[in-house]
Design brief:
The protein has helices spanning 2-34, 55-60, 210-222; strands at 39-45, 64-70, 89-90, 105-106, 111-112, 115-116, 122-128, 143-151, 174-190, 202-208, 224-229, 242-243. The chain is an alpha+beta fold. The longest helix is centred in the N-terminal third of the chain and has 33 residues, at 2-34. Residues 117-229 form the Flp pilus assembly protein RcpC/CpaB domain. InterPro entries: Pilus_assmbl_Flp-typ_CpaB (IPR017592), RcpC_dom (IPR031571).
Length: 250
């Protein structure tokens, strides 16, 4: 019986010694990895952090953890403490293990249903068929120009909107002009779709300033809006536009 207890005790002792040895080896490996390089403590996502979660809530829910990393591999805006962004919220979902950096956090007032409204801008939504939003290619994050097609007020010089909507009568002169340039698309909500892809009517939300919002809302009520995707260095400038008389260079 004593011999059996001695064997069990030796087995337990060997297991403890082995575990301690492994831990010391891992710690030594970490020290070797950081040897000669300054180490800093940074925050990473211990678990997935849903968009709209404040730093304080994430800390209290155990969604954050600290890690030691070589200073040379850490960006300057990496967070070292949740207190640095205590009341701010993440603007989009953060994956487990992802390093937390300052630009990920915004004020709660700027975040609505996962959409971040750029500082100094307001969000405006307009309906648009597929052909009015580049066949469905105008997606969140895209920069677009907005054109307006309308009936011309014939009693005034130039292409001035009549304000009566895009009435379809042959004796009306219609015009199309550039309304807004460099507009950011924040969200696109499909109202309906077919199997071929994202077509049909959708609600397009864009970021504009007050003047842009006024133009967009007014044009939506009196004409027809079309979005155009902007490429690199687009040559898009306001002008008189074209109408039925000038569309072919007349």
């Amino acid at each position: 019986m004593k011999r059996r207890l001695l064997v069990i005790g030796l087995a337990v002792l060997l297991a403890v010694v082995g575990t301690v040895g492994v831990l010391l080896y891992v710690r030594a490996a970490d020290d070797r990895a950081l040897a000669g390089r300054e180490a800093v403590t940074v925050l990473v996502a211990g678990k997935r952090i849903p968009a709209g979660t404040s730093a304080r809530s994430a800390q209290e829910a155990g969604l954050l953890r600290s890690e030691r990393m070589p200073a040379g591999t850490v960006p300057a805006d990496a967070l070292k403490s949740a207190a640095d962004v205590d009341e701010l919220v993440v603007s989009s979902d953060v994956s487990e293990g992802q390093l937390l950096v300052r630009p990920m956090f915004v004020t709660a007032a700027r975040l609505t249903d996962g959409i971040e409204i750029p500082e100094g801008k307001i969000a405006v939504t307009v309906p648009a068929e597929a052909w009015q939003r580049v066949g469905g290619l105008a997606k969140p994050g895209a920069k677009v120009a907005v054109f307006d097609s309308f009936n011309v007020l014939e009693s005034k010089p130039g292409n001035t909107p009549a304000g009566d909507g895009l009435q379809n009568q042959h004796d009306y002169n219609k015009a199309t002009r550039l309304l807004l340039t460099d507009v950011e698309v924040l969200a696109v909500q499909q109202e309906k779709a077919v199997e071929e892809g994202t077509v049909g009517k959708a609600l397009v939300t864009v970021a504009v300033d007050q003047a842009g919002a006024e133009k967009l809302i007014h044009a939506q009520q009196t004409g027809a809006l079309y979005l155009a995707l902007l490429g690199e260095n687009p040559d898009v400038k306001p002008g008189a536009g074209v109408d039925n008389r000038s569309v072919f260079g007349g």
